[in-house]
């Protein structure tokens, strides 16, 4: 317990917030490529599983591009058995996936604790895995890394498959992570992935077949001292029938495993949906308690002449001799041609002539009776296994499940709810399709899987206004909407890069694939600042206000700039934004000068003194003038500062 606590404390990511949104909590698991943490999505207040790629992966630009593309593809998968991908991000080189958090355990835990499982239990666990793979294969996505660690089983028993697209992203990167992937999952790799790196839906079928084998036996089909030896076994040895380890397993279950894991991909089911139908048939046979079903076993058995043999490799169960003629060839027996000692190229020895057989009494009537008995037996078996036990699947499409069940019961058949899916044509709550399809052959008392309509697939446009554009686009992927037009425009209140408006609007109900158009802020509009130096303050203020600026004003005297004009401006060039401030310094004209004191001077002296100082003089007589010509008063008074050239009024007695 102490070691675990120390590990959590020393983990540099625990407690960190990635992408400004995900607060990293306790570490849940660690693998070859990534570490999984429990995290809190602070924006939506929900617990998520955060899968963080190991250091170094984010440094590969090719891997990063592929990782983003594959994450978006996986996010488009909509299936209850797929672990949902909510978000993908890159926090300063730390690549991560935000996924649905599944509380429970992995299939690895189940195999470790419970294997070998009964065939019925194993197939019940495999069915939802194939449902998830079917959804992926329908969407053109190949998982490439099916293994028990990627199958999650919730506390409520729901089975979910994780990591769609991740293996493809890593294998395409060309770095050492690819080697780690091969080393970590080699026990489940299809032969073609080992030989040439190619993969398609049949590769996932192979891995699912290996899972089934391991659930049935508790062991992997191939083993070796090194991963390379295990990979070699996948390429050069067939998967043995699980009944070699668990003799109670019916032959048709053996055949199912070996068909799915055929080394030649052309012999496998073409995709998970076809494999799922085969699993459904085998499950029905188990429900009937059949120890063997020759027809079903024959349908699933790989043609023996097509099973490849590679000389020199001992797979642990094939033999170097063909079985004696007296022993019947089982469906799990692999026949290898044997040369009984004749050297290569040596002529065959002519056998000695056989001695003439002794004359015997004719057994014609007895042989005829035996032949007739065998023919009757074969005909009866063929009738029972090929005709008598089967009927035709009725058409249940467009019926409600209850009505479909009632109709099936009239045919002696059962129904089960396999899945739900969207439909543009079939009303919600009615059957879209059946497995087997209408008209297909089905065993009497067999089970018809119903897929029920959820109605037209529709989604509500989420609230995207105010989000960064990339976050808004990522929010569209889980609900199958796409990015439409992106129009950038200036906005004085919304920061650059954030969404101003969307069309269709928030909460509008739309079809999958609907394009959402974005208006995205370019930030505030930049405004060129004009130079208004020398202009009148009135004109300068009007111009700047019209552009959206706030005008600041200060004054000072200036001998060169006329009163009321702009002496200087800050700033006087470049660009600003609306409501930014532009400061103006306005001229008060030349500096003020002091008025000389001329009281008690004669009129002539006063005029001369004021005139020499640059003032204009106006003389007025006092009302009680005495004719003395002496200045009794002046305005402005002596000592006051006024503008140069001002008029000074003197009053004389």
TrEMBL record:
<keyword id="KW-0472">Membrane</keyword>
<keyword id="KW-0547">Nucleotide-binding</keyword>
<feature type="domain" description="PASTA">
    <location>
        <begin position="523"/>
        <end position="588"/>
    </location>
</feature>
<feature type="region of interest" description="Disordered">
    <location>
        <begin position="308"/>
        <end position="361"/>
    </location>
</feature>
<feature type="domain" description="PASTA">
    <location>
        <begin position="391"/>
        <end position="454"/>
    </location>
</feature>
<keyword id="KW-0067">ATP-binding</keyword>
<dbReference type="InterPro" id="IPR011009">
    <property type="entry name" value="Kinase-like_dom_sf"/>
</dbReference>
<protein>
    <recommendedName>
        <fullName>non-specific serine/threonine protein kinase</fullName>
        <ecNumber>2.7.11.1</ecNumber>
    </recommendedName>
</protein>
<dbReference type="GO" id="GO:0004674">
    <property type="term" value="F:protein serine/threonine kinase activity"/>
</dbReference>
<dbReference type="InterPro" id="IPR000719">
    <property type="entry name" value="Prot_kinase_dom"/>
</dbReference>
<dbReference type="Pfam" id="PF03793">
    <property type="entry name" value="PASTA"/>
</dbReference>
<keyword id="KW-0808">Transferase</keyword>
<feature type="domain" description="Protein kinase">
    <location>
        <begin position="22"/>
        <end position="283"/>
    </location>
</feature>
<feature type="domain" description="PASTA">
    <location>
        <begin position="455"/>
        <end position="522"/>
    </location>
</feature>
<dbReference type="InterPro" id="IPR005543">
    <property type="entry name" value="PASTA_dom"/>
</dbReference>
<dbReference type="Pfam" id="PF00069">
    <property type="entry name" value="Pkinase"/>
</dbReference>
<keyword id="KW-0723">Serine/threonine-protein kinase</keyword>
<keyword id="KW-1133">Transmembrane helix</keyword>
<dbReference type="InterPro" id="IPR008271">
    <property type="entry name" value="Ser/Thr_kinase_AS"/>
</dbReference>
<feature type="domain" description="PASTA">
    <location>
        <begin position="589"/>
        <end position="653"/>
    </location>
</feature>
<feature type="transmembrane region" description="Helical">
    <location>
        <begin position="366"/>
        <end position="386"/>
    </location>
</feature>
<dbReference type="GO" id="GO:0045717">
    <property type="term" value="P:negative regulation of fatty acid biosynthetic process"/>
</dbReference>
<dbReference type="GO" id="GO:0005524">
    <property type="term" value="F:ATP binding"/>
</dbReference>
<keyword id="KW-0418">Kinase</keyword>
<keyword id="KW-0812">Transmembrane</keyword>
